[in-house]
């Protein structure tokens, strides 16, 4: 019975998208965070174990002084994804981050995949930072904790596990989970104080590091600035990418921001820029102070200042490291319960995870489960395995968010959505007794090849008029006039379908190019004929996909923040994320597919049957808007405060036309044609 139910309309169930409620600002969570709070939340989540733990490892073993380039490259890739997150933050101010964005734009199945990976990302992030926190404190105490633990419990002789169980890291995870249960405002206050201390310590490191800098350390004999080659820089960038994981937690605060359409994009860009500059300056100061081959990977910054005789700075840096890792841990444990809450609210996870405590306005059960699972991971696994496993889910989420931006930009408005016209907008044919002219225009509108000739009306439509907005919505996903030569190939496609197909093809081709670059770079470098021909063909197809996408009209109405140069920046983000994923090890991919297999069991045995989008009217939507129950039942025209509310079903169906003779004008929306027939 289960198999028969799953196979019945499986594709339609997997591809159904989330219909947003009428009031996006209504939420059971507490909207109390301003832009400053959210910016510090993002900075605090990013500046932690990445700068204090990974810097020494990457500089010593992967990139040398070129770690500066690795951080710049990782920061640019993160910035591309951050721009896409910022646009979605204004479009969908809901908890759940990339999960909600994918659900709205692509479909339920991929949304579950991303949500399941985000759960893993934040769980591993919390565990890895707790492990780093424990190791840092233990090193300050002379390894007393590690030695005592191994004396009492012995070592765990298992390759997949850590050398010994880390009870301190487990305790730290549980303690911070309890602290987060007090409420989001108290958490934001603690995070702001600790982040300020952390940024001050980073500034101290930069100033002292450049004061004691020696330029000769960037040009060691026989080593140079890039001792491990460009491959080392790329490998270092893939590892340094972990240091930027955390800005997506800003998007999870969308339901707790006072003004999410402004705060989310601004906080995302600001926090990422501040962190990137800080990382580059700190890594430059470290590699200028001492030769890269003398860096201690376990405690790079304190040991570097100790070698220079600045012993007092060691304690200041250790304080900053503890504060930084604390804020990162708080950020992961803050985001994880909210992602689980978003998935449970949609019915894809068990309903018990969709409840919010009425007093603290925090999903307490989610927080308890998150804290316990993260504590168990921190107890049993070491930092290296946690970090490597974490990167793949993050990169996949960034890739799909970037693709979602393109898909939504070129997707026409759905039949359920409505537009509000001005009070002086003429009514429908039935109201006026005949065809009505377009408000704000002096010329009628006609289709061309199934689309709308925007060039014939651009000079006659007021851009601020309601009709201009309706026409832009109707044009979305249709070919631009200058690309009419593509109509024999793409003319039969429904609006938006060609763009979605081109995005999918671009992702597949990017995977092929990146795998070829990884496996046959030498052949390409030496100009082997087959490598040049293969790469030439693949690059031509990639460019063709981008051209097909850019040949269509976009819909940007209502966006307070827009990613510039769409589709080029999101496409570049997709390619860069896939390139970094290709550099991850086989074991990481194997662990990822095991985790994904568990998620597929949850989705196909529970989520697909209990999805709220599978019901006629979701309970979540019903709570948000009392008139949601009648959405989608044909076309309506309802008076609303002197204006009118008209569905654009006929726009999407291409019912925008004009009579070429006699000067008669046809209304842009004819709601009653089908009803009368």
UniProtKB/TrEMBL annotation:
Keywords: Membrane, Transmembrane, Transmembrane helix, Transport
Coiled-coil region: none
A GO term from the CC aspect: plasma membrane
Cited Gene3D superfamilies: Amino acid/polyamine transporter I (1.20.1740.10)
Ranges of Low complexity composition bias in the record: 439-465
Membrane topology listed for this record: Multi-pass membrane protein
Alphabetical list of InterPro entries matching this protein: AA/rel_permease1 (IPR002293), CAT_C (IPR029485)
Disordered, as annotated region: 421-465
Name listed for the protein in its UniProt record: Cationic amino acid transporter C-terminal domain-containing protein
GO molecular function ontology, one term from the record: amino acid transmembrane transporter activity
Location relative to the cell: Membrane
Sequence intervals crossing the membrane: 35-54, 66-86, 98-119, 164-181, 193-213, 225-245, 266-292, 312-336, 364-383, 389-408, 497-517, 529-551, 563-582, 588-606
UniProt organism field: Anopheles albimanus
Residue ranges annotated for the Cationic amino acid transporter C-terminal domain, each copy included: 561-611
Keyword Transmembrane helix attached: yes
